[in-house]
Amino acid sequence: MEKTIVIATKNEGKLREFKEVFAKKGIDVKSLKDFPEHSEIAETGLTFEENARLKAEGYAEVTGLSVLADDSGLQIDALHGRPGIFSARYAGNHDDAANNAKVLMEMGGIPDEKRTANFHTTLVLRKPDGQELIGNGDVHGRILGVPRGNNGFGYDPLFYLPEKGKTFAELTSDEKNQVSHRGRAIEDLMERFDEFWK
Ligand SMILES: O=c1nc[nH]c2c1ncn2[C@H]1C[C@H](O)[C@@H](COP(=O)(O)OP(=O)(O)OP(=O)(O)O)O1
Ligand SMILES: [Mg+2]
């Protein structure tokens, strides 16, 4: 039985979260750092699933191993679901501070009760033979007017979880993994993982 999964992301924040969760499950994970040749995959899909699949396929070619790719983003109701699949390149390309500033500017003047949003993750796990396992996860919260907290990455300082009374950036990584879109997508995938992996 093959034992290694390559986490095919260039995002250090995602990689940290995946490593924590998979280590607890006793699964050996590698990252793109273990493979010297890996140019970035263009995310030309129209959905999270299409983009995750493009990354899984692209990096499977590079590594020849089983690959897990994540496509995720923040969907803000008042912005009609934006930034959505464009979350990483909303303002600057992979510039978290610029992306957060753009969201805050666009949300200016929108009252608390209309600041609802959700984070979404779609995971595509692809075996070398092309078989796929897909997982999805969502978490609902609100967009603050002022960033709070120093943990996490991306839009975490703006994403407030009412039931915790904290933003994602104020949670420990364990706490975040228990409730986050990514944590839930991993759980969703894991429900069917054993059957897929054997
Ligand atoms: O838990 C999260 N907490 C805060 N922000 C998050 C989270 N999860 C996704 N995000 C944001 C970051 C990025 O702006 C976009 C994902 O874009 P996405 O293309 O999936 O990832 P990426 O380009 O950073 O790395 P890669 O494509 O190599 O996996 O959504
Ligand atoms: Mg990306």
Automatic annotation (TrEMBL):
<keyword id="KW-0378">Hydrolase</keyword>
<dbReference type="GO" id="GO:0005829">
    <property type="term" value="C:cytosol"/>
</dbReference>
<feature type="binding site">
    <location>
        <begin position="153"/>
        <end position="156"/>
    </location>
    <ligand>
        <name>substrate</name>
    </ligand>
</feature>
<dbReference type="GO" id="GO:0009117">
    <property type="term" value="P:nucleotide metabolic process"/>
</dbReference>
<dbReference type="InterPro" id="IPR029001">
    <property type="entry name" value="ITPase-like_fam"/>
</dbReference>
<feature type="binding site">
    <location>
        <position position="71"/>
    </location>
    <ligand>
        <name>Mg(2+)</name>
    </ligand>
</feature>
<dbReference type="GO" id="GO:0000166">
    <property type="term" value="F:nucleotide binding"/>
</dbReference>
<keyword id="KW-0547">Nucleotide-binding</keyword>
<dbReference type="GO" id="GO:0046872">
    <property type="term" value="F:metal ion binding"/>
</dbReference>
<dbReference type="GO" id="GO:0009146">
    <property type="term" value="P:purine nucleoside triphosphate catabolic process"/>
</dbReference>
<dbReference type="GO" id="GO:0036220">
    <property type="term" value="F:ITP diphosphatase activity"/>
</dbReference>
<dbReference type="GO" id="GO:0035870">
    <property type="term" value="F:dITP diphosphatase activity"/>
</dbReference>
<comment type="function">
    <text>Pyrophosphatase that catalyzes the hydrolysis of nucleoside triphosphates to their monophosphate derivatives, with a high preference for the non-canonical purine nucleotides XTP (xanthosine triphosphate), dITP (deoxyinosine triphosphate) and ITP. Seems to function as a house-cleaning enzyme that removes non-canonical purine nucleotides from the nucleotide pool, thus preventing their incorporation into DNA/RNA and avoiding chromosomal lesions.</text>
</comment>
<comment type="similarity">
    <text>Belongs to the HAM1 NTPase family.</text>
</comment>
<feature type="active site" description="Proton acceptor">
    <location>
        <position position="71"/>
    </location>
</feature>
<keyword id="KW-0479">Metal-binding</keyword>
<keyword id="KW-0546">Nucleotide metabolism</keyword>
<dbReference type="Pfam" id="PF01725">
    <property type="entry name" value="Ham1p_like"/>
</dbReference>
<feature type="binding site">
    <location>
        <begin position="181"/>
        <end position="182"/>
    </location>
    <ligand>
        <name>substrate</name>
    </ligand>
</feature>
<dbReference type="GO" id="GO:0036222">
    <property type="term" value="F:XTP diphosphatase activity"/>
</dbReference>
<dbReference type="GO" id="GO:0017111">
    <property type="term" value="F:ribonucleoside triphosphate phosphatase activity"/>
</dbReference>
<feature type="binding site">
    <location>
        <position position="72"/>
    </location>
    <ligand>
        <name>substrate</name>
    </ligand>
</feature>
<protein>
    <recommendedName>
        <fullName>dITP/XTP pyrophosphatase</fullName>
        <ecNumber>3.6.1.66</ecNumber>
    </recommendedName>
</protein>
<dbReference type="InterPro" id="IPR020922">
    <property type="entry name" value="dITP/XTP_pyrophosphatase"/>
</dbReference>
<keyword id="KW-0460">Magnesium</keyword>
<feature type="binding site">
    <location>
        <begin position="9"/>
        <end position="14"/>
    </location>
    <ligand>
        <name>substrate</name>
    </ligand>
</feature>
<dbReference type="InterPro" id="IPR002637">
    <property type="entry name" value="RdgB/HAM1"/>
</dbReference>
<comment type="subunit">
    <text>Homodimer.</text>
</comment>
<feature type="binding site">
    <location>
        <position position="176"/>
    </location>
    <ligand>
        <name>substrate</name>
    </ligand>
</feature>
